[in-house]
Task: inverse folding
């Protein structure tokens, strides 16, 4: 597999391709075939994602360049029947020329604003590079909004789970809001998972400050590497406890790692990767413990293996959902 330095085409070629796709995506009607073509191109190489993300950054930088100006650059003056690839290229090149003229390819200035939204579908994972050098890995069925302003970098995790690698910037704290809690850092590496009744935070590197969304500034729980906490639905933050960050973020490598996890926890985790939720029959079954490793993209293998590991069976209901029951 190629890494980011092994792309078969040069940076200029990739940048041109990204610009062409950027222009196409501004059109009101994009065919399903074009959308599939774009998704395939984006998945070919991390450099494709980086260059396209850069153009999205430019589009969002409204305090540096009026949105109307960028929209005008992307308008095709010729009738639809007369559109030619060379014209599309010229339009894309004009967007890039403006960007280069403003020096935006070196990154947004600290005062620049930036807004974007990212989401993943069932079974999808996504890597996002932000304009300040920070990075986000999104787990399956996740959604977040990014808002950078002069004094703060703000993330709203509205659903799912994300791993954050934050570029240090003491002048602009990086704040992640999720459920009834928020996490504040200036530069570190940590994981946030939003669930229906709680939000979980685990730190892999550096330190973070965790507090209820509406809590007073002094009501803060500090976490360092190897520690985690939970924020309940009332905004109460639990005392720090030891975690295994590698196990908690094994999803980034396509793995589900369970270390003495209850079947209730297993069912909740597996449900993230299935069309129908996985349920547990009763409290006695829910409290059984499991230690094992499975693949995120093959949860059927987990369900087939369970009866040979624990005294349980898996029952399939008429709606396609499944339930773990006592055997």
Result:
């Amino acid at each position: 597999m190629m890494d980011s330095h092994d792309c078969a085409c040069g940076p200029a070629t990739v940048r041109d391709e990204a610009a062409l796709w950027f222009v196409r995506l501004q059109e009101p009607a994009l065919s399903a075939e074009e959308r599939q073509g774009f998704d395939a191109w984006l998945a070919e190489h991390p450099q494709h994602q980086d260059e396209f993300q850069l153009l999205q950054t430019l589009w969002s930088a409204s305090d540096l360049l009026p949105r109307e100006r960028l929209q005008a650059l992307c308008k095709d003056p010729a009738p639809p029947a007369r559109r030619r690839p060379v014209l599309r290229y010229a339009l894309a090149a004009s967007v890039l020329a403006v960007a280069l003229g403003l020096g935006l390819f070196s990154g947004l200035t600290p005062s620049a604003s930036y807004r974007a939204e990212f989401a993943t579908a069932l079974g999808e994972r996504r890597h996002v590079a932000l304009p300040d050098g920070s990075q986000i890995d999104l787990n399956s069925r996740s959604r977040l909004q990014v808002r950078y302003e002069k004094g703060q970098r703000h993330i709203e995790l509205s659903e799912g789970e994300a791993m954050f690698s934050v570029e240090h910037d003491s002048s602009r704290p990086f704040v992640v809001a999720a459920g009834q809690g928020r996490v504040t850092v200036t530069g570190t590496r940590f994981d946030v998972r939003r669930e229906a009744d709680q939000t979980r935070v685990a730190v892999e590197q550096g330190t973070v400050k965790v507090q209820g969304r509406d809590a007073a500034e002094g009501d803060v729980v500090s976490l360092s590497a190897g520690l985690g906490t939970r924020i309940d639905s009332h905004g109460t933050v639990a005392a720090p406890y030891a975690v295994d960050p590698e196990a908690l973020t094994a999803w980034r490598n396509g793995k589900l790692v369970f270390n003495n996890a209850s079947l209730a926890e297993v069912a909740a985790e597996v449900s993230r990767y299935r069309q129908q939720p996985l349920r547990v029959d009763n409290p006695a079954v829910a409290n059984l413990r499991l230690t094992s490793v499975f693949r995120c993209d093959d949860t059927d293998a987990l369900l087939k293996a369970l009866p040979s590991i624990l005294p349980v069976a898996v029952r399939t209901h008429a709606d396609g959902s499944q339930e773990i029951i006592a055997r």
